[in-house]
Each structure stands twice: as structure tokens, then as C-alpha cells.
Amino acid sequence: MNWRPTYLYEVEHVGAAKTIKKSYFDIGVQDIRSKRSYLCSALISYPTPILTELLIKYFGFLHIAQKGKETVVLREKECIAFDVPQNHAEQQADLLVAADYRGHLSHGMNRLEFYLNDLSKKATDGAAVAKVLKESPATAWVDGCNGLGAVIGNFCMDLAIEKAKTVGVGWVCAKNCTHYGIAAWYPLRAIKEGFVGISMANTSPLMTPTRAKKAAIGTNPLAVGVPAGNGHFLLDMATTAVALGKIEIQRRKGENLPAGWALDSEGLPTIDTDVALRKPSLMPLGGFELNSGYKGYGNVKKCYSRGLYNKFKPYTVGGTLFVH
């Protein structure tokens, strides 16, 4: 199916009700209450049903999809569960949609439940607004205040872009962040403005260093985007063989893991998704030492930031965004 997500779409037929079932999303359609523009969260071919009701209940926006001249809508519900402002919900939804549409299924709707859990546990503050703690013409240090990842990331990248427009370069670092989705989302914003963009972040310890038995360092993703005349250059990668979400997708599909992705609790390779997710222990980029896995382990230092942490204290996520 070739669905294109429509981020904002004007509802023309109040009370419209149609159903499209040829999708991995089992979409129920309800009447809508008013005529206005609504956010389309997503309608992408996906390997397993997604909790569309959670999207509506907790993020407070409608599902709207367009196929030819048909419009699918779901009833509007109030955003009362986690107090996520509409603007913040839209930014997070845009990122989820873009991830799935670009083929990053591990970081699209697959990540929704993760975000909702963090909101329910107050690990993420859906209403938080990032604050600039210190800045110079070319740099800034930001406190993300544990807000939604997309909201913090967009704020930081946009700030870096504005600085680059003024002095030629922008470098923004942030603390107290949360999971910010696909790293490529932020260089793409720089590319649209004609700049080279880089983003990188730390994560909780998920990578098992070469010759070790347990996870001790983050997957620490990084992305680079460079504008070009005939197709832009865009690299988005984790420093592990795969992101944790790729293993989640394999489990949803009921398939084993390829060799070289993960280890079991004894530090031995496993292809069992349940074993790999029970206590995540991802292999470095390259996999086995014979296949240069130590290079992936060494590469993690490029965006290393408190990847090792006290097991009795929650880890904190930081991000760095660079524009030139």
C-alpha cells in the first residue's frame, strides 16, 4: 500500500464515516463533531495492529487519512490523560509519521506505547518547554526539562539553524532530554534551510562492549545530513548492530534475529527475540569481534555522554545538534 500521511487536512464533511480495512491498522470510524483542520497521526502499512485509540485518547488528535478522494476520520477526544498540549502532540506525531513513512518502523508507531508509559510515570513532562541556560552567538546549552523528545529536538535544531544563519555555524547541546525519535529528523530540518546538519544523543546502557558479558554503554545514535543538488545525503545510524526497536519489530513479526544482533544473559549470541528483549544486550556495530565489532564499540565514543550510570539512579539523556 502506498499511503502518504497528510499532516494537516481540512475536514469538509462533518459526520463523515467511512471504513478502509486493507491496512495493518484496524481502523474504526466515528462521526466527527466539527469542521476544522486536524492532525493526521499516521496510516502506514505496519506488521501488527497499533493502538489507534491510545493516539486519540492520550495525544488528543484525530486520525485522518486520504486515499484518492476518500477521507477517513475518527472522532475527536479531549487530551486530558497526560496534559500534552496540542502543539507538542503534533510535533511528536509528525516525527512518528515520518519515521514510519521513511521505513524506520522501529521508531515510528512502534514507539508510541513507550512514550505513553513515560508520560504516565511522569518520566516525561508532556507540557515542558526547553530553556536556554547559556549561549553565545554560535553555541547554546539547553535544559530540555524532560519534555517530549521531538519538542526538545526541534527546539534545539531550530536554535542551531538560527545561529548558523547569523554567524555561519550553530552548536547546541541539551541535558534532561527524553527519547528523540529518529536522529535523521533533525538534520532534515537543517537540509531544508540549506545547511549541513548533525544530531547525536546518548541512551540508556544497551550495548555490550566487545569481549564483555553485559550491556554497559548506550546505542548512542548519530545522523548527518548534507544538502545536494540531485538528492541529499543523509546518514542515520546507531553504534550498535541495530537499534533495540529492530528487535521489537522482529518479535512482532514472529521472526528470529539474524546472527550478530544480540547476546543472552551469559554473553552468548542469541537469535531469540524474547531472550534478547528480556535484558537487552545489543552487539556493537559490526557484531562479532571477527567482523570488526570493536570498531562499533569504539565509535560510540563520538557521542558518549554518561552512557555508564548508577543502576539505582535513572539515566539522563542528552543531545547535541550541529549546523553549518
Written overview of the protein:
The two termini are 38 Å apart. The chain is globular and about 50 Å long. It has helices spanning 52-59, 86-101, 112-120, 149-167, 185-192, 244-253, 273-278, 293-299, and strands at 8-10, 37-39, 64-67, 70-73, 131-135, 139-143, 170-177, 197-201, 222-226, 233-237, 262-263, 269-270, 317-323. The longest helix has 19 residues, at 149-167. The protein is α+β, with helices and mostly antiparallel strands and 324 residues long. Helix content is 26%, strand content 18%. It has a 7-stranded mixed sheet. A two-stranded antiparallel ribbon has the order 1-2. Among the domains are: 65-121, Malate/L-lactate/L-sulpholactate dehydrogenase, four-helix barrel (Hypothetical Oxidoreductase Yiak, Chain: A, domain 1, Orthogonal Bundle); 131-235 and 297-322, 2-Layer Sandwich (Ribosomal Protein S8, Chain: A, domain 1); 244-281, 2-Layer Sandwich (Wheat Germ Agglutinin (Isolectin 2), domain 1), CATH 3.30.60.50. A hairpin with a 5-residue loop joins β11 and β12.
| Biggest sheet, spatial arrangement of strands | 5-6-7-13-8-9-10
Query: Please, what is the average pLDDT?
Result: 73
Strand content of the residues, in percent?
15-25%
Q: Any idea of the CATH topology of the domain at 131-235 and 297-322?
A: Ribosomal Protein S8, Chain: A, domain 1
CATH class identity of the domain at 131-235 and 297-322:
Alpha Beta
Order of helices and strands: EEHEEHHEEHEHEEEHEEHHE
The end-to-end span amounts to: 38 Å
Which segments are poorly predicted (pLDDT under 50) over 5 or more consecutive residues? Answer: 1-81, 305-315
Based on helices, strands and strand pairing, what is the structural class? alpha+beta
Query: Helical element count?
Result: 8
In percent, how helical is the residue content?
25-40%
The main β sheet shows up as: 7 strands, mixed
How many E strands?
13
